[in-house]
Structures are given as structure tokens and as C-alpha cells.
């Protein structure tokens, strides 16, 4: 679950930066950004109150993501692993899976 917290905290920080940049150029967001996560245990802990058993460096990331979710800056939503578009950028995938993910990303060619 450590990887999920690291990824969620890094992505959330980038989302906040992009939202602030958009505000600087007078673009207002209509809704909060959805953060897709395939770890149901991580989602449950972000939405709940469980903080037991984590290392200190992970606890800081966990609290950061939990805090921005409470402030409605991001919404954490479950996404099945097979629908995770980011896999095309982060994992070695076989050709059929590559074609499927490319289609999900609306890329052609």
C-alpha cells in the first residue's frame, strides 16, 4: 500500500499546482479533480480514520492526501486495474494490452 500513498501524494501535489496555475490565468475549476486509485484498502484508509501501522514517512503522505480530499481539492475514486490508463506509461505491457490502453487514452496510429 506504500506505493499507492506515494503516487497519490505526488499526484495530488501536482494537481494542486495545476489548479493554482489555472487560477493565476483566471481559469476557474467547475469541480474538484478525480484521482483514480486501484487500491481499495488505500481508498478506504484515505476516506476513513485508520492511521495505525504505517511508517512515519508514509503517514505524512497519507495525511496530506486525506487532508486535500477533505478539503474537496481531489476526489479519490476506485478504478479497476484493467482500466488504469497510466499503465501504458509506467509498466511493460504486452502488445494487445498496449493497443487496449492506447484506445482508452484516445490515441490512434
From TrEMBL:
Protein's name according to its UniProt entry: Polyprotein
Organism of derivation: Peronospora matthiolae
Amino acid at each position: 500500500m506504500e506505493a499507492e500513498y506515494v503516487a497519490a501524494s505526488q499526484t495530488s501535489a501536482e494537481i494542486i499546482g495545476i489548479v493554482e496555475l489555472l487560477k493565476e490565468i483566471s481559469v476557474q475549476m467547475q469541480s474538484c479533480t478525480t484521482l483514480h486509485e486501484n487500491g481499495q484498502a488505500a481508498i478506504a484508509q484515505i476516506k476513513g480514520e485508520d492511521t495505525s501501522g504505517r511508517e512515519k514517512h508514509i503517514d505524512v503522505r497519507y495525511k496530506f492526501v486525506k487532508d486535500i480530499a477533505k478539503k474537496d481539492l481531489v476526489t479519490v475514486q476506485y478504478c479497476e486495474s484493467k482500466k488504469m490508463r497510466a499503465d501504458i506509461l509506467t509498466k511493460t505491457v504486452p502488445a494487445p494490452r498496449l493497443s487496449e490502453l492506447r484506445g482508452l487514452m484516445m490515441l490512434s496510429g
